[in-house]
Design goal:
Elements: E1 2-6, H1 16-30, E2 34-40, E3 54-58, H2 74-89, E4 93-97, H3 99-107, E5 115-118, H4 131-135, H5 138-147, E6 150-153, H6 156-165, E7 172-174, H7 181-184, H8 192-196, E8 203-208, H9 217-228, E9 234-239, H10 247-252, E10 259-262, H11 267-276, E11 279-282, H12 291-298, E12 303-306, H13 311-314, E13 321-324, H14 329-341, H15 343-356, H16 362-375, E14 384-385, E15 404-405
Parallel strand pairs: 1-2, 1-4, 2-3, 4-5, 5-6, 6-7, 8-9, 8-11, 9-10, 11-12, 12-13
Antiparallel strand pairs: 14-15
């Protein structure tokens, strides 16, 4: 089958959506499909002979984001270019990434191609940095998602936001993001403690992600400051571009040497950081389905995360980590101290997460996309339960403290080897 993935952004720019597109394309190519990624022409081109898929550009005016991308004449110009590319490649299935603007562009084509559309966050969030606040797109986004063969909700909260927009329930398909399991389960050649001058016996709390208001690293640093005196063995490492903006806060709290801010690690070094940390901590005030939490699970880390979208679906407090209220520094500090002090609990949670991560292999996620395209109906994800070996609870939760997703008993078929693409913090 010929499969086209279309996005506004792809490598060499790196972020969650770019890696989702890459891994889906890689898995479909490894399964024998002919795969092409269409990206906008104002981005730098990227190619890898070992990736198994091709990359093409579609023309787009560099200034299109200064106005609303779905307005004529921008939309006419862009959809004409996409159509020309499709006429050459002749896709049998289109996987669109970003409901706005990509899903909107596809819904404006005549005839409308068969497409699945995945919303990655900025088009659904109600925060001021999102597309809904900037471009006032609620109606046009709902029309686009309803015109698709399936609107992919990557978390239960994403599904709720789609329903609030007016997307028909039968259009919505819940498929989470995935994680590169083989990569995180092969021991990395990296020394996290040596890189940052941390003592071998120290307990390392790790956060990963670029600086953005939604990450709320100030809350994380304040929570760590509350426990630093009682737990001199604890160190907090934050990896991500732009995170050094918090250095003044670290100095003011007299945490120099205890809180390490790094612009990020690359490739195997980042994998090694996950593997050698002791606790994964996400103080975010908003996510949709955070890849970093899935990566921490694949590395077998216990989780302390805020009760936000995506994380709600992955963590059950007391079973594989703890969920805390966003912005509640006292609650964060309480559970940070508990995890730092209890090595046995860390190991217990980490073992559960390593098992749960099997549900989120990219091979399984990619296959679920193809099933969604073929059958066009919601199918249950792994049965949620409050803890291992408890009775099943199949109630879907779209808000509040979410379910723990247990392993699907269906066997996973062997697949191809993913190309070595850098995942940076």
């Amino acid at each position: 089958m010929r499969i086209a993935l279309i996005t506004t952004s792809f490598f060499p720019q790196v972020g969650g959506a770019e890696f989702v597109v890459h891994h889906l394309a890689s898995q479909w190519a490894a399964a024998g499909h002919e795969v092409c990624i269409f990206q906008s022409s104002h981005k730098e081109s990227w190619s890898d002979a070992d990736a198994g898929y091709s990359v093409r550009n579609y023309p787009i005016p560099p200034s299109y984001l200064k106005l609303s991308p779905h307005w004529p004449p921008f939309s006419w110009y862009i959809t004409r270019g996409i159509r020309r590319g499709f006429d050459i490649f002749k896709p049998e299935l289109v996987s669109a990434h970003f409901g706005y603007p990509v899903g909107v562009w596809l819904s404006q084509m005549d005839p409308v191609p068969k497409f699945l559309v995945t919303c990655h966050g900025r088009e659904l969030t109600k925060f001021y940095w999102g597309d809904r606040a900037i471009y006032k797109i609620d109606k046009v986004l709902a029309r686009a998602l309803n015109a698709s063969a399936g609107a992919i909700a990557i978390s239960s909260h994403a599904k709720r936001l789609m329903l609030e927009l007016g997307v028909m329930p039968e259009r919505i398909l819940t498929i989470p993001n995935g994680v590169d399991l083989p990569r995180f389960r092969q021991t990395a050649n990296f020394d996290l403690r040596g890189r940052f001058g941390i003592a071998p016996e120290a307990t390392i709390i790790l956060s990963v992600g670029r600086e953005h208001p939604q990450k709320a690293y100030d809350s994380g640093i304040r929570a760590f400051a509350s426990i630093a005196g009682k737990h001199p063995e604890a160190h907090y490492v934050i990896l991500g571009k732009g995170t050094k903006r918090w250095q003044q806060m670290v100095d003011d709290l007299q945490l120099h040497g205890r809180v390490i801010l790094s612009d990020g690690l690359q490739g195997e070094d980042l994998v090694g950081a996950y593997q050698q940390a002791d606790v994964f901590f996400s103080p975010s005030i908003w996510e949709l389905m955070p890849l970093v939490v899935l990566e921490a699970m694949a590395a077998g880390l216990p989780l302390l995360v805020t009760d936000v979208s995506g994380s709600q679906d992955l963590v059950q407090s007391g079973a594989n980590g703890f969920l805390v209220e966003p912005g509640n520094v006292e609650e964060m500090a309480l559970f940070l101290a508990r995890l730092v002090a209890d090595r046995a609990l860390r190991r217990e949670f980490g073992a559960v997460n390593s098992k749960l991560a099997d549900n989120y292999s990219w091979q399984r996620i990619a296959q679920r996309y193809l099933e969604a395209a073929e059958f066009g109906a919601e199918q249950p994800w792994p049965v949620p339960t409050s803890a291992p070996d408890c009775e099943d609870d199949t109630e879907e939760k779209v808000s509040g403290r979410g379910p723990l997703m247990m392993q699907d008993p269906a066997p996973e078929q062997p697949g191809g080897t993913l190309p070595a693409v850098r995942r940076d913090a």
